[in-house]
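User: Here's a chain of 264 residues. Predict its fold as tokens.
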Amino acid sequence: MSGRGGRALTTIHLEETPHLTYVLRLADSALVLSHRLSEWCGHAPMLEEDLALANIALDLLGQARLLYEHAAALEGRGRSEDDLAYLRDAPQFKNLLICELPRGDFAFTIVRQTLVSAFFHPYWQLARSSTDRTLAAIAEKAEKEVAYHLRHAGAWLVRLGDGTEESRRRTLEALDTLWPYTGELFEVDAVGEAMIEAGIAPDPASVRPVFEDTLDRLFAEADLPRPAPTWMQTGGLRGVHTEHLGHMLAVMQHLPRAYPGARW
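Assistant: Prediction complete.
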């Protein structure tokens, strides 16, 4: 995101409408997951995968930028994408909890990316028909990108799940850890209900059959058992986060907060 000068950078507070909150949820989830993937740069198990994860991170960052730009326009107070990314504290972020969990090992990253992409691919497909034409245009771009993310992560899931004893153990461990965070993907509160009623947001319930079918296929190919129903984590969409988000934002937001007005 481009830096810009002119005024000191302090924490901002938004007067959120349901529409603004909804767009911020999408933007925050994309940004936070992008940052987690960027932490693999220089550390992936092979050079090709280092580049692949970096490219997925850049796709998500691009989605976040477009969504923050749209959110700023909805608020109408002259803020920029940088303001929304760098000048809000952790309780103001509305990202899905699954996106903020620490990077973990390679199996953890692959399982998380598979789960998130299996949801967002059909979600963005449906969002192309949004009555919010800007969001529909963003969805048109994002759907194509997430289709690749799903293919890439899904192929690795099969390799790891049906690979060595060690890779299978790590994959099962990651799936066990991450599965309780998938319920939030389908959570609908008052904001979600308003957006669905207005035709702005797809109903997550419409995504679930595709999500389930995609995972059933991949689990079968990877010879992985489907996780048993369990209690689901919640809170991210309301700004209630794990301790990990604050640590991540301290790193991500350090430069613009430490050097207000800097240009790069």
